[in-house]
Amino acid sequence: MKQRKLEILLEKVRSFDSPDVTLEQYSTPSVLAAELLHFAFMKGDLDDTVYDLGCGTGMLAIGAKVLGAKRVVGFDSDPAALDIARENAEKLGVEVEFECLDIRQVRGHAHTVVMNPPFGAQVKGSDRPFLSTAMKVGDVTYSIHNSGSLAFVKKFIEPAVITEWYNTGFPIKRTFKFHKKDVERIEVEIYRITKENDQDN
Amino acid sequence: MKKDLMDILACPICKGDLVLNISKEDEKEIISGTLYCSKCNEYFPIEDGIPNMLPPELRE
């Protein structure tokens, strides 16, 4: 499937009803989700089990399943968001499982973790449990971070390493009252992280 | 939730195994029921197909 087609498909994914600012519940824009997923797909990382940490309304999880992942599980601590995620999966006709828990409690093993964690803009350090959990349960992780996070992430994930990363834009629609513009373009970075022992390039 | 999700589910308090109790299911998955930890004597609900593993004080 072409990236553009995936993006159009993911436009159907419904967003949060009442986003919680402390959880940074911004819906991942379909253009960014399609970009990350296409990147992962081309690297051959969407064949096996995929976990979406902090899946919210299921954008990345659903996209991963659309692209053919064998098994996809989405985790989030907000039951209301997961209700919407379930509806979204049904609407797009894919089978994705969802589980409601604190992200630190995620167990099991996935070949690939995809996530758009909170950036820690509201509650400092809120991206850390996501990175820690991703390192614990996944072999390969695709994660979206604020532009300029490279040095921090690199250090935090040791001994895992970033094999590739790139800069891209992230349109964010007016979601909370303190937003001044209708749409603001946020510069973000997408990282591909592997545990050192199974690094393949 | 599907039954094979049980292999990654654990009690969030003691990390022990959980006992699945199904009250409603269709051919594909479990719609509602509970997950029970005998060690902590705690129940975790499955509602609309989604297991809620948040500790009781964080549930709505």
Descriptive account of the structure:
The complex is a heterodimer of chains A (201) and B (60). With 201 residues, chain A is of the alpha/beta class. Chain A has a single domain (3-13, 29-198), classed as Rossmann fold, CATH 3.40.50. Chain A has six helices and seven strands; from the N terminus they run ααβαβαββαβαββ. With 60 residues, chain B is an all-beta fold. Chain B has one domain (3-50). Helix content of chain B is 0%, strand content 38%. Chain B has strands at residues 19-25, 30-37, 42-47, 50-51.
Strand content of chain A: 25-35%
Task: Give the domain tally of chain B.
Answer: 1
Report on the biggest sheet of chain A. 7 strands, mixed
Low-confidence stretches of chain B are: none
CATH fold label of chain A: Rossmann fold
Written as H for each helix and E for each strand, in order along the chain, the element string of chain A is HHEHEHEEHEHEE
What's the name of the CATH homologous superfamily of chain A? Vaccinia Virus protein VP39
Keywords (chain A): Methyltransferase, Transferase
Pfam family, one (chain A): PrmA
InterPro entries (chain A): rRNA_MeTrfase/Polyamine_Synth (IPR051720), SAM-dependent_MTases_sf (IPR029063)
GO molecular function (chain A): methyltransferase activity
